[in-house]
Amino acid sequence: MGSLTDLTIRAAAEALRAGQISAIGLLEAVLGQASRTEAELHGYLTIDREGARTAAEAADAAFYRGDDRGLLQGIPLAVKDNMVTDGVETTAGSQVLSGYFPPYDATAVARLRTAGAVVVGKANLDEFAMGSSTENSSYGPTRNPWNTDRVPGGSSGGSATAVAAGSALGALGSDTGGSIRQPASLCGVVGMKPTYGLVSRYGLIAFASSLDQIGPIARTVDDAVTILETIAGHDPLDATSYRGPVPAFRSDIEHGVEGVRVGVVRELSGEGIDAEVLAAFERTLDTLRGAGADVVEVSLPSTSYALSCYYLIAPAECSANLARFDGVRYGNRVDGGTVEEMMGRTRRAGFGPEVTRRVLLGTYALSAGYYDAFYGQAQRVRTLVGRDFASAYERVDVLVSPTSPTTAFELGARTQDPLSMYMSDICTIPSNLSGEPSISVPVGLDGEGLPIGFQVMAPALGEPILFRVAAEIERMAGFEPLPSEKVGS
Amino acid sequence: MPIDIDIAYVARLARIDLSGEELARFGSQLGVILEHAARVQDLPTENVPPTAHPLSMTNSFRPDEVRPSLDRSVVLEQAPSSEDGYFRVPPALET
After folding, report:
1. What is each CA distance from A201 to A72, A275, A429, A473, A479, in whole angstroms?
2. The pLDDT of residue A489
3. Which residues of A touch B32 (CB under 8 A)?
4. Is A92 inside a domain boundary?
5. Mind listing the pLDDT tens digit for each residue in B61-84?
6. The domain that contains A78 carries what CATH number?
7. Which of A242, A270, A392, B5 is most buried as measured by Cβ atoms within 10 A of its Cβ?
8. Quick check: pTM over 0.90?
9. Catalytic-role residue among A22, A132, A137, A155
10. By residue range, what is the domain housing residue A154?
11. What are the Cα distances from residue A87, in Å, to A121, A122, A384?
12. Is A179 annotated in the active site?
């Protein structure tokens, strides 16, 4: 066996059950890797050594008793810091929440704990999940483990970095416009956004409620499924939680792609996509054809407007959601003579530039006189995006595109130009608008040794076909993850 | 062309106390972003209903049962200021 921190969740789960390793031994290896690399990478905002050790010892004791709660028992995982954790500081990357110790767990986190998983710590993110590089964290950026001059993507950059660097075997991220898939793509790991409503948002600090969805980041498609199986399912504490049966995620995962109809989205796989990313995308399409998939080109004309639509809807919802950070109930306060003065100063001091920008943008888009021209029109365009997807899925089983138009860019390259940063998400945003599942799978490296991701999208509750195609792409791509020992060396 | 907005008014609505220099900077950035976002107006949407939410859900009900909630003291511990079981804030009205 190589380094413990290179194990997949599947392999670690088998080794735990064979008595070859212990949960505490596995955790100590992960903590050791974090100690060695975190000063440079900064994937975590908080490492909960004590809590993690207690959980790992409990997992070992459960194994000893013969109490087996599934594949995640004893597995060290990272949780994005916009999910609340009982008694563990939760900041969402914002100064306004520094020193906030929530009195409860988010449902997704509670389900991980119930399954015996070990929460290592809280992963760094763009403040309130607003960004595509993790540079908007008010606690300093995370760096890409493949090349520390580069960003890990965002907003779940800390989660993707922890998984890629061996400082966790898997992680939870959240995806509002690509915040799981784009960092997964840039860090050479698998990232998946489930169908809207499949995973409870209770305890996820809200950014844009109609778009936010929690999902897994892992080294393999199989591991991502394992995490999703644990966190999915109806939750009475989230009124938007899906009430129907959870799809059988694994039902078709070994069926290959023979006869599967794959639609290449023309608007997302041509103009604006880096040449090397496009070449890797085309190579993957060839392997799909070779494996018997029926690859056709489809057009979703309204997706050309998805970015514009998203940058009205997401800020509008964020401006409403972030009204709660007003210095009254939790978080920090800057005093003032009147309540309004206190709130204005608190929010000025508590929010970083990108969050301020989006709150202002959303406030404008919702304000009297502009509501219909901006927010109302964006909602109608959202309908058109959904219709384009629905009509495409009459002809194909899945849709595909690159995940990100480029590989990991340099720190600072896009921070001065908000619009250029927003462009990072052109391929991922449409699935958030439609509420449909989508996954990024690493398929290769560019000339500079930076990972390239391939995106697969499926209709609502189409996770079985999504995982089926993703698993086959993964198998054929034979992507080599970054070995733990290479990180930071 | 970048869209010209009354940024001071918007900042006041959003309750963010920005300096004059910050207002100018955010105002011009927002103008550029809105110019791009305004592309949504190029699509004909007559008779297209708005989507507020990706799932076609209607009301979501649960049984109206009393169950324990977080203890008040636990919640108030996180507040910047509290008194006698309440959140405490500066005066909202001139006296």
Report:
1. 21, 37, 19, 30, 32
2. 63
3. 418-419
4. yes
5. 888 999 999 999 999 999 999 999
6. 3.90.1300.10
7. A242
8. yes
9. A155
10. 4-254
11. 12, 12, 44
12. yes
Nearest CB to A359: which of B16, B49, B77? B16
Under-70 pLDDT residues of chain A: 1-2, 489
Provide, as residue numbers in chain A, all residues whose Cβ is less than 8 Å from the Cβ of B26.
Answer: 356-357, 360
Nearest C-alpha neighbor of A224 from the set A438, A459, A3: A438
> CB-CB: which of B18, B43, B90 is closest to A348?
B18
pLDDT tens, residue by residue, A22-43: 999 999 999 999 999 999 999 9
Contacts 24+ apart (CB under 8 A), A277-282: A277/A402, A277/A404, A277/A405, A277/A406, A277/A407, A277/A446, A277/A452, A278/A402, A280/A402, A280/A443, A280/A444, A280/A446, A280/A452, A280/A454, A281/A400, A281/A401, A281/A402, A281/A443, A281/A452, A281/A454
- Is pLDDT at B94 greater than 80 in this prediction? no
User: C-alpha angle A150/A156/A162, rounded to 5°?
Assistant: 70
Is residue A201 one of the residues assigned to a domain?
Answer: yes
Chain B residues lying within 8 Å of A386, measured CB to CB: 51, 54
What is the number of structural domains in chain A?
1
In sign, the C-alpha dihedral spanning A301, A366, A133, A471 is negative
Q: Assess if residue A148 is contained within a domain.
A: yes
| CA–CA distance, A374 with A210 (Å, rounded to integer) | 17
What value does the CA radius of gyration of chain B take, rounded to a whole number of Å? 22
Confidence of residue B3 (pLDDT cuts 50, 70, 90): confident
pLDDT at site A418: 87
Classify each residue of A91-105 as buried b or exposed e, where b means 16 or more C-beta atoms within 10 Å of its C-beta. bbbbbbbeebebebb
Q: Where are the domains of chain B?
A: 7-42
**Selection from A19, A108, A40 nearest residue A489 by Cα:** A40
CB contact (8 A) between residue B17 and residue A347: yes
Position A407 scores a pLDDT of 98
Q: List the structure tokens of A421.
A: 């940063």
- Asked if A380 lies within 8 A of B48 by C-beta distance, the reply is yes
Amino acid, res. A485: E
